[in-house]
């Protein structure tokens, strides 16, 4: 039986061409119609979680905010004995007062990521600077409880800034982390040095320590106004490639704990030096204004170190060698204070200040050991909150040992032991890994 096949239809070139033209016309018309539709409004949450616009004006805002994060501590240290005698407090109160900043940095720093998620970086840092300014003005109004309470309020604002400014740098300047970190840490060191050097001078001209300490609230007010003018969130779409929300849990990461321990050890040494160095010099026969200048030298040395170390270290594959070298140099200054404090006081101050230059390396390590800004915020909060609680032990133990022994030998040996541990932990934290 024959099988009948239907004749094959040959394709019509004209019909195929017409179909392509029609399809292209429909696609073009659809795109045009879609383009004319109004854009969906950005949600408030999307705006809050977007990165701040990384304009040069924001660098100015970051720098002025950073300049306010240390004078609350160093200005008080330079007139600590005058404050203690004036308010009728004892050495135990002075030891507690020098430990307050680090304790507050640790406790309040835990809240910083939550504040950022709820209100956004711009508002959270703006309120933090306002709180800092209010605390600086409040603490000069009355006796020991008010001095202590005002310092707590000011340091709560500082704690939020400590945690969130590295996040701003990571989000808004992802290709200039080293350079902007250098600006941040240099401004921070400059503010600390200015607080130590200028406060005794201001006390002579403003009628005592109350006017001198209150004057630093003006610098805080300037930072608030500058931040309000320069910090604004960008387009959430521009940050689409960046993972938003909470960072990954860090408490199970050995590297995160290593970075936290390193940050805590350097904070312990730095806040001990900033809180007690003038008193060590005064007991060695140096007059109070000169002792304040030596503390200023130690902190101001951080300015050039902060400008040089972060960019250079960030370009290196590992930061371990830099951390070890800076820490050992700082330890040599503490050895000088232990052996012969009056023999070369300026040299010891310079060497100790060089050692505090490890702080910008600690900030750089936090940003380099994470993959994105969400993890940076989480690690920054962990390292700074727990790290500053570790750091609070330093000033308190230093003063306590001084009270128990009647001299500074045991106190300085204690700090040198911490420096030795910092060398090993800092080397591990500087290795090329991410959490």
Compile the SSE list and pairings.
Elements: H1 13-36, H2 44-49, H3 56-66, H4 71-77, H5 80-87, H6 91-109, H7 112-119, H8 121-138, H9 144-172, H10 177-205, H11 209-214, H12 216-230, H13 254-283, H14 288-300, H15 302-315, H16 320-339, H17 345-355, H18 358-368, H19 373-405, H20 409-429
Transmembrane segments: 49-69, 89-112, 124-141, 147-169, 181-203, 209-229, 255-277, 289-309, 321-340, 346-368, 380-401, 407-429
Keywords: Membrane, Transmembrane, Transmembrane helix
Protein name: MFS transporter, CP family, cyanate transporter
Supply database-style keywords.
mainly alpha; 435 residues; 20 helices; globular; disordered N terminus
Query: What is the domain tally?
Result: 1
Query: Helix segment count?
Result: 20
Give the terminus-to-terminus CA distance. Answer: 78 Å
Unreliable stretches covering 5 or more consecutive residues: 1-11, 13-41, 237-245
Return the string of H and E elements.
HHHHHHHHHHHHHHHHHHHH
Mean pLDDT: 81
Q: What CATH architecture would you give?
A: Up-down Bundle
Total count of strands: 0
Q: Compute the gyration radius: what is it? A: 28 Å
State the shape.
globular
Helix content: over 70%
Q: For this structure, what is the CATH class? A: Mainly Alpha
Secondary structural class: mainly alpha
Q: Which fold name is given in CATH as the topology? A: Growth Hormone, Chain: A
- The CATH superfamily is MFS general substrate transporter like domains
Largest sheet: none
Percent strand equals under 5%
